[in-house]
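User: DUF1059 domain-containing protein, Mesorhizobium zhangyense:
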Amino acid sequence: MKEFQCGSLVPGCDWHTKHEEEAEVMRRAVEHMRETHGETIIRETMIEAIRSRVEKVRDAA
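Assistant: Predicted structure for DUF1059 domain-containing protein:
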């Protein structure tokens, strides 16, 4: 399971997402950046910043 906590990139944001596939976590994170934080252009540096903050987490049983 992979997880992205937006607050690790945008201080004060409580949004997070989890999914088995990192690609889906990335897709959701980019969508969140566009919709919530008004990012109209997602540059490679933003993708890298998000990817570097995606963490592997254990599934809660």
